[in-house]
Amino acid sequence: MKFNGIVNNINYNYFIKDKYEAGIILLGWEVKSLRASSNIQLINSYVVFKEFEPWLISSIINPIRSICNHIDVLKNRRRKLLLKKKEINYLYSIYKRKGFSLLPHRLYVKNSFFKIELCVCVGKKNKDKREIIKKRENERAINVVQKMFCRK
């Protein structure tokens, strides 16, 4: 099953140091909406620790009206993340450090459970972003020249 829950610009804005897989606690209507329409927004979401527990903040799951017409729906609610105790301790120590961020990268299904991929990230400077753009443009120019000479 394919989902739209992928943050595409995370590699452009951040250096990814490490990745972790976490379970996510969802309500019934959220599971049904994700399975039916696979529409979740993770772009501005992040992970926060409250009382030594990881929570996913500002992720939006859009409800389906045919499923969620009898209850009040909070699209933008906090969702608890499920990790092993060693992983929580490590991520909490990183969360307290300055300059590091815990961001969700993608949401997927594994053995009928919804999992979220968390990335330990460090923000990039504008200088780093410009270097990446220059490299990309140089690679494109090289590919164009190679295609011109290889056509026969």
Query: Distance between the terminal alpha carbons, to the nearest Å?
Result: 42 Å
What's the total helix number?
A: 4
Count of β-strands: 8
Largest β sheet strand count, sense and barrel closure: 6 strands, antiparallel
Beta-strand content bin: 25-35%
Structural class: alpha+beta
Proportion of residues in helical segments: 25-40%
- Uncertain stretches: none
Task: Give your account of this protein's structure.
This protein has four helices and eight strands; from the N terminus they run αβαβββββαββα. It is α+β, with helices and mostly antiparallel strands. The chain has a six-stranded antiparallel sheet. A two-stranded antiparallel sheet has the order 2-5. The chain is globular. The mean pLDDT is 84.
Q: What's the short version?
A:
The protein has 152 residues and is of the alpha+beta class.
Layout: helices, strands, pairs:
Layout: H1 10-13, E1 14-24, H2 28-37, E2 40-41, E3 46-50, E4 53-57, E5 60-61, E6 79-82, H3 85-96, E7 100-110, E8 113-123, H4 126-150
Antiparallel strand pairs: 1-6, 1-8, 2-5, 3-4, 4-6, 7-8
Offer a few descriptive terms.
4 helices; alpha+beta; 152 residues; single chain
